[in-house]
Structure formats: structure tokens, C-alpha cells
Amino acid sequence: MARRAPALGVLALLALLGLGAPKVEVYARSRAEEGKENILVCFVSGFHPPEIDIDLLKNGENMPNVLYGDFTFDEKGQFQRLVHVPFTPTKGDIFICRVEHSSMPEPPLVLILRDLVMLYRLISALVNLPR
């Protein structure tokens, strides 16, 4: 019975801190325009422990020259990491940020950006951004 108390205490502490599954944000560094070089960014935050796999894919294939920032952590002690790669969007491309972490159920979380140019135009129309 004495052994259970520390384990329950750790679980309660993790619950209070909100540690667990990562939050994933995918975006282009600047307005996406077909045929113009840009930077694809995947920012993963709010996870613990720091062991995590993050992959950037274009049309189902791992993208070359992906750069991985150092692990940092926020005020709650949760980890975050920025992953990015230069890319040139073309019509019909599908970009994926695939994240695998021990706190996540199978299959891994996948966020998809399809046709970044069309996505920007849609958002521009919805919020009246300059085109």
C-alpha cells in the first residue's frame, strides 16, 4: 500500500500540471505563394517527457534538409520544439507534420496543409486580409 501512494502522487501532479499530449501548429513563415520559396514550420509544445518524433512530409515523403531547433520548455516545465524546412509550394502539394509521443494514442497525430496558397486565400477572404 505504501508503494501506491508515491505513484498516485506522481499521477496527480502530472494531472495538475497538465503534462501530456503535445499541441501541434503548422504554418508557413510568410504568405504562401505558388512557386515562391518559403519556410514550412511545425511548432510542437506542451509535452512531457521530451522524447518525441517529429517528421515533415511532402506528398507522403520525408522532406530533405529539415532543421530541428533545440528543446526548450515553458513556465509549466512542458517541452516545446520548432521544426522547419525551406519549401516551394506548388498546386496540389500536401504537407504533413507527423508527431509521435508516448502520451498520444495510436496512430500518431498528423496535421495536413493542402495547397497553402488556397488556404491563405480562404483565410484572407474570411478575415479580410490583403491579398
UniProtKB/TrEMBL annotation:
Q: Where in the cell is it found?
A: Secreted
Cite the SUPFAM superfamilies for this sequence: Immunoglobulin
Supply the alphabetized keyword list.
Answer: Immunity, Immunoglobulin domain, MHC I, Secreted, Signal
Q: Which SMART domains is this protein grouped with?
A: IGc1
Q: Which GO terms describe its cellular component?
A: extracellular region; MHC class I protein complex
Q: Which PROSITE patterns does this entry report, sorted A to Z? A: IG_LIKE, IG_MHC
Q: Which residues form the signal peptide?
A: 1-20
Name the Gene Ontology biological process terms.
antigen processing and presentation of peptide antigen via MHC class I
**Chief localization class?**
secreted
Q: Which residues form the Ig-like domain?
A: 22-103
Domain of life, per lineage: Eukaryota
Family classification: Belongs to the beta-2-microglobulin family.
Q: What is this protein called?
A: Beta-2-microglobulin
